[in-house]
Amino acid sequence: MEGQEAPPPPPPQFPSQNPPYLFTPSLLLSSSLHPSIIEPQSLPDIDWVGLLSGQSGLGENRPFMDSASMVAENGAEEEKDKKKGGRMKKTTRPRFAFQTRSADDVLDDGYRWRKYGQKAVKNSKYPRSYYRCTHHTCNVKKQVQRLSKDTSIVVTTYEGIHNHPCEKMMETLTPLLKQMQFLARF
DNA sequence: CGGTTTTGACCCGCGC
DNA sequence: GCGCGGGTCAAAACCG
Which class does domain A93-185 fall in? Predict the structure, then answer.
């Protein structure tokens, strides 16, 4: 509906200055992650190589970790669709896709997701699932799809940037930070 | 009892 | 204009 408009600038309430919270804290520290990230290969209908190298047809894509350009895109992102029905339109927001070899479709990347749809895709006997970040001010989306070619491989596509910290990351990092502070006194 | 999943309907862009 | 493929909505079911 039209009731949920993302309010302006999210107040920085985090150490460091209003960073773009890219997905995946705990994803990158793969200690808590069983599946291993493998090399993206050519896939039908999607230019995976372009996505990962930051020069696909969407033009504005960047590989992850490029926080500077992410900030810029995040600022320009709020200027967008006001379709009559209030539906989301094709806003050029950063996308990022990768494959994992995993038994379960959803991997714990530290954020909370609410599933809002599932569709069967052509050329694949497995459905694609659509998730959205449950944080109110955050409209990051991701979709998960298992390859019909190789059942053990799951493709996850992230769209957008989190504008809030990851709870799981804090929960993981807090003890560490405390210990560092303690040790820093000597 | 509140949040999440399920699932069919709906919507929209695109190619013919 | 129409059909298809893909993305989203929303109500009901489900679950802790």
Answer: mainly beta
Predicted confidence (pLDDT) per residue in A103-158, tens digit: 777 777 788 899 999 999 888 888 999 999 998 888 889 999 888 778 888 888 88
Please check whether residue A23 is in contact with residue A158, taking contact to mean a CB–CB distance below 8 angstroms: yes
Residues A6-33: what's their mean pLDDT?
Answer: 38
Give which of A17, A18, A94 is closest to A9, Cα–Cα: A18
Which position has the higher pLDDT, A62 or A156? A156
> Of all nucleotides in the shown strands, which has a C1' nearest the CA of A112?
B4
CA A145 to the chain's CA centroid: 14
What protein residues sit with their CB closer than 7 Å to strand B?
A 83-85, 87, 89-90, 112-119, 131, 134
Looking at strand C, which nucleotides approach a protein CB closer than 7 A? 5-10
What are the backbone dihedrals phi and psi of residue A118, each rounded to the nearest 5 degrees, phi first? Answer: -155, 130
